[in-house]
Specification:
The complex is a heterodimer.
Chain A lengths: L22 H15 L7 E5 L14 E4 L5 H11 L4 E7 H7 L1 H10 L3 E7 L2 E2 L5 E2 L23 H8 L3 E6 L3 H13 L4 E6 L11 H4 L1 H7 E4 L6 E2 L4 E6 L4 E6 L15 H9 L7 E8 L5 H8 L10 H5 L4 E4 L1
Parallel strand pairs in A: 1-2, 1-3, 3-4, 4-8, 7-8, 9-13
Antiparallel strand pairs in A: 5-6, 7-13, 10-11, 11-12
Helix pairs in contact in A: 1-6, 2-4, 3-4
Chain B lengths: L7 E3 L1 E9 L4 H14 L3 E7 L14 E9 L12 E4 L2 H7 L8 E5 L5 H6 L6 H4 L6 E5 L1 H8 L7 H5 L2 H12 L5 H10 L4 H23 L6 E3 L7 E7 H16 L3 E5 L6 H7 L7 E5 L3 H13 L3 E6 L1 H6 L1 H10 L3 E7 L16 H6 L9 E3 L5 H16 L2 E7 H5 L1 E5 L49 E3 L14 H17 L16 E8 L3 H14 L3 E6 L1 E3 L5 H6 L1 E8 L4 H10 L4 E4 L8 H12 L17
Parallel strand pairs in B: 1-8, 2-5, 5-6, 6-7, 10-11, 10-12, 12-13, 13-15, 14-15, 18-19, 18-21, 21-22
Antiparallel strand pairs in B: 2-4, 3-4, 9-16, 14-20
The chains are: A alpha/beta, B alpha/beta.
């Protein structure tokens, strides 16, 4: 290893081609910073993506990069991980790429717990195809393909991941430098599949779709930053989340007056994670940070542990051919 | 039982075992083959089984059969018409009667001939009493009953005891062929090493069947069967199924390339036997990934190749169709990828367990955009070994996806194989980034090998050479994204040239049988090899100027092929599809052809090919483009 790398060392020479003001720029910055902070190397880092605005990401990182086909990045990354489990693999996807055309692969990369970091840029719209509603769009979304408003029920990325058996689920906001950075570093530190949903603003087709909780004026009231072992409080510590046994959900309580009722975050508790991931503002704050983390053996660990020779060639084909009854002529 | 039995002695004999899916006829067949091999006969087999795992007992659609043609060399097909049929029940008899040769010997399990079973098979009367078996030689045995007697002392349940009847029948067939049962006993000992009761019960049934033949002989009621011994070239042999040879071929390719191999597949009939073989071959540096779907299997194989392993994906027609977009990605990214297609009857789900060679268009033409890739086909079970090595060699040498076409028949059929030595094969080489003094290596990432046009295979993890690649069009020099018009023209040309360059590395087309000019060239590809070879061999006894030419390389075609075929008055292309190679040859060579097409799910019969050629020679037969189903049971 040579000198410590800086975020700039992870920036490629390629001209970035996202729309001016796109949330992707902030994510790109956060990722290059995180790579530097965790001490990644350029040669061992690989970014694999599918198709969509988010999937241009690999071109802009100074590492190995593979811009694959729509929805299939998790499958390509799985094959790559099998071939070389030492690589540090990031999958970059979006709400359409990951949850619509590639939903099946996302399901399986998570349940297999393949050691890759999945960044799902959720902007609730198909950007690169010019603004159609996506599988995460809220009902009533007006778009070129839903001129009177969409009527489909959206998928909740975090709850999908939890249902698929993900072992790491976190959330961040594109422009939230500190929060997103912490989440990316935590995702990097996890040994199985890490799933990170990033709320990303599409300035052209779905501007400010998350403004109601991202905007500064609402942030304190409508966001809750969770941390393992710490009370689930928000609004500058004024309010907290308490268990509501009547609804099997949570309710907002005064974090000072009812401090004893405030839940403490346990990132290994899947039931709590389910509740946190399903919270919607304005009724409840949107949960951010590492919501669920329960380490389990990764797919590649299982693969190599179960492989008779750890993928090494110890047998010869000359001998293998003859491992049956043979006979000589002449 | 007829008292005067007639012995059958000939150059070769076709034997067919048929029963319910659960009767164990496939096992009986493979054991008979093992003993045939050791008896010095050549052979070819054809397992013919239903799509249902356990179809309703006694029904015609649940009949499972195993056919073997054995005798003097060269045996290249499982034979047209069985001379011996062992039928375990009325349904097995009914389904197979139309296939039999004149005067065939039928060994019948008469215990299976209950009223109920007759009705299930669609017989209103016992066929033994209606005269429809006249002309055949019948050996009636109360096989179930005799088996139960033979294994009585082992205290098995009635159903377990009854399950030994395939070994009883095998014992009898072994006796008819004048063989002992030692080889089969050896197998039983290994297979049931830990299950003494089952092992000994089957051994007892085997012996009882053998002894039954001997006793009946005393009454002159049991025929002897015999064939000539084959003249094999000197060497070490084994019996091999296509799936086994293919798996060994992939392991051999990995050994020759000194790389690991990642095999990515989603279960599908009839491709799964290959997955099962390779799952037990980890010691060759082979890893198995059972993907969530066909697309993921192709994409994971591409990921593995990107990481420096040999990525292989395998399926059958419907699954390969799903992989199409991923194959385009491998073309664009210029990564090696082997796609194995075990073809089956189609379209759609079609006939999953029946054979067909109708995915040639899919392999050669079946992708969006101008997306050429090399296509290679295997022609016999043992040939799968070399075909696999050759396909991987092309993929790695030219940095391209390659199609390897096999089919359901090849995967499951078996034949003797004179095993090669790995030292006979040249190492498989890949384009590497060659250092050039004064030039930065990174600037040379897309510098191509002048002979193959392959880009260097630089894998993630290599310091200092980080680059980005993908499905977007790339600049021909730098590999960066490019929307430039001239560049796209140049890249399209380059992709076509890359595949054309394969032609410089493949051998000229040879003539399999006959002269390199003459009246008729029979041109085939894939698993029709055996039938065409035999047909030409037979025709040569009475006709002059008939040759057999069989293609391994379907894209690109060998350089000399057009010139070679032009030296024949007529070119006949028999295919188990509606004329796909014929289209390809017309397209690439501009030849006039006569087609012979059959799409019945069954392999060609030698006699139908012979008859067709004779009609052509008589001048009263043009292309037979309508599937010929008359006389065929699908």
């Amino acid at each position: 290893m040579s000198a410590v790398l800086t975020p700039k060392d992870f920036t490629s020479e390629q001209e970035v081609r996202w729309c001016p003001g796109c949330g992707d720029y902030a994510i790109l910055k956060a990722v290059t910073r995180a790579l530097a902070d965790v001490g990644a190397t350029r040669e061992n880092t690989v970014f694999v993506s599918g198709i969509g605005c988010s999937s241009r990401f690999p071109y802009y990182i100074e590492s190995y990069g593979f811009h694959t086909i729509h929805g299939r990045a998790p499958a390509v990354a799985t094959g790559l991980k099998l071939a070389n489990p030492d690589l540090d693999i990031w999958v970059v996807t979006g709400d359409g790429d990951g949850l619509s055309i590639g939903g099946n692969h996302l399901l399986h990369v998570l349940r297999r717990n393949v050691g890759v970091k999945i960044l799902l840029f959720n902007n609730e719209v198909y950007g690169l195809t010019k603004g159609q509603y996506s599988p995460t769009s809220r009902p009533g979304t007006r778009s070129p393909s839903s001129p009177v408003g969409s009527f489909e029920s959206p998928v909740s990325p975090g709850e999908f991941a939890l249902g698929a058996g993900a072992t790491f689920i976190a959330r961040g906001i594109d422009v939230d430098k500190a929060g997103l950075g912490a989440v990316l570093e935590a995702a990097h530190g996890h040994s199985g599949a890490s799933f990170v949903e990033i709320f990303q603003n599409c300035i052209v087709y779905n501007e400010d779709v998350f403004e109601s909780f991202v905007g500064k004026e609402h942030a304190a009231e409508r966001q809750i930053r969770v941390e393992h072992g710490k009370p689930l409080v928000f609004a500058d510590g004024a309010r907290g989340l308490a268990f509501d046994s009547a609804t099997f959900s949570v309710q907002i309580v005064d974090a000072v007056a009812q401090a004893d009722r405030v839940l403490v975050h346990d990132e290994t508790n899947a039931t709590l994670a389910r509740i946190l991931l399903s919270m919607k503002e304005p009724a409840l704050p949107v949960a951010l940070g590492v919501i669920y983390r329960k380490p389990a053996p990764s797919f590649e660990q299982g693969f190599y542990a179960n492989h008779p020779t750890k993928m090494k060639r110890t047998g010869s084909v000359d001998a293998a051919m003859r491992k049956t009854s043979t006979w000589w002529v002449g | 039982m007829d008292s005067a039995s007639q012995d059958i002695q000939s150059e070769s004999i076709v034997v067919r075992f048929a029963g319910d899916s659960g009767d164990g006829v496939q096992l009986m067949g493979t054991q008979f083959v093992a003993s045939t091999a050791l008896s010095g006969r050549d052979f070819a087999t054809f397992p013919d089984y239903p799509a249902e795992i356990r179809a309703p007992v006694g029904t015609t659609f649940g009949v499972s059969a195993y056919q073997i043609n054995l005798g003097a060399r060269p045996i290249t097909t499982a034979g047209d018409a069985p001379k011996v049929l062992v039928a375990f029940n009325p349904a097995a008899l009914k389904v197979n009667i139309p296939l039999l040769d004149e005067g065939a010997l039928i060994v019948l399990n008469i215990d299976g001939f209950t009223e109920r079973n007759l009705a299930k098979a669609g017989y209103s009367k016992d066929p033994r009493e209606t005269g429809e078996l006249n002309g055949f030689q019948l050996v009636e045995v109360d096989l179930t009953h005799l088996t139960l007697e033979a294994v009585k002392s082992f205290g098995l349940s009635k159903s377990d005891a009854g399950r030994c009847k395939n070994f009883w029948a095998l014992g009898l067939v072994q006796w008819m062929f004048g063989r002992d049962v030692e080889v089969i006993e050896g197998w039983l000992e290994k297979k049931f090493a830990k299950d003494e009761v089952i092992r000994e019960a089957n051994r007892a049934a085997l012996h009882a069947g053998h002894a039954y033949g001997e006793t009946a002989e005393l009454a002159a009621a049991m025929p002897h069967l015999g064939t000539d011994v084959a003249k094999f070239d000197p060497g070490e042999y084994r019996g091999v199924r296509g799936a086994e040879a293919l798996a060994l071929g992939l392991a051999a390719a990995a050994e020759l390339a000194d790389r690991r191999l990642v095999f990515c597949s989603y279960p599908i009939t009839p491709a799964s036997p290959l997955l099962h073989q390779l799952a037990r071959m980890g010691e060759h540096g082979i890893g198995i990934f059972q993907a969530e779907d066909e697309i993921a299997a192709a994409c994971a194989a591409i990921g593995a190749s990107y990481g420096g392993a040999i990525g292989v994906t395998s399926s059958s027609g419907p699954g390969v169709a799903l992989k199409t977009e991923a194959i385009g990605l491998a073309i664009s990214a210029e990564l090696p990828l082997l796609i194995i297609n075990s073809q089956r009857g189609g379209p759609s789900t079609g006939l999953p367990t029946k054979t067909e060679q109708s995915d040639l268009y899919l392999a050669v033409y079946g992708r969006n955009a101008d997306a050429p890739i090399p296509v290679v086909a295997a022609r016999s079970p043992s040939d799968c070994f070399e075909a696999a090595i050759e396909a991987v060699r092309i993929a790695l040498r030219h940095m391209t996806p390659v199609f390897l076409l096999t089919d359901g028949y090849l995967a499951n059929a078996a034949e003797p194989w004179r095993m090669p030595s790995m030292s006979q094969f040249a190492p498989i080489k890949t384009a590497q980034l060659a250092p050039v003094a004064g030039e930065e290596p990174r600037a040379r990432l897309f510098n191509r090998d002048p002979a193959t046009l392959a880009r260097p295979w630089v894998v993630p993890g290599t310091p200092g050479l980080m680059y980005r690649i993908g499905g977007l069009e790339k600049d021909i020099r730098t590999g960066n994204i490019s929307y430039d018009a001239d560049n796209h023209q140049a890249m399209t040309r380059l992709r076509a040239d890359k595949v054309e360059r394969v032609r410089d590395f493949i051998p000229d087309q040879a003539v399999e049988l006959g002269s390199d000019k003459g009246r008729v060239a029979m041109v085939g590809w894939g698993s029709t090899y055996g039938a065409i070879y035999q047909a030409v061999r037979q025709l040569q006894r009475t006709e002059s100027g008939i040759s057999h030419i069989h293609l391994r390389y379907l894209s690109p075609l060998p350089r000399n092929l057009g010139e070679l075929l032009a030296r024949f008055d007529r070119v006949i292309v028999p295919e188990m599809n509606n004329g796909q190679l014929a289209t390809l040859l017309r397209d690439k060579l501009g030849l006039e052809l006569i087609q012979h097409n059959k799409v019945s799910g069954q392999p060609f019969q030698v006699r139908e090919l012979v008859a067709f050629v004779k009609k052509v020679l008589a001048g009263n037969q043009m292309s037979n483009v309508v599937p010929m189903v008359q006389g065929e049971r699908s």
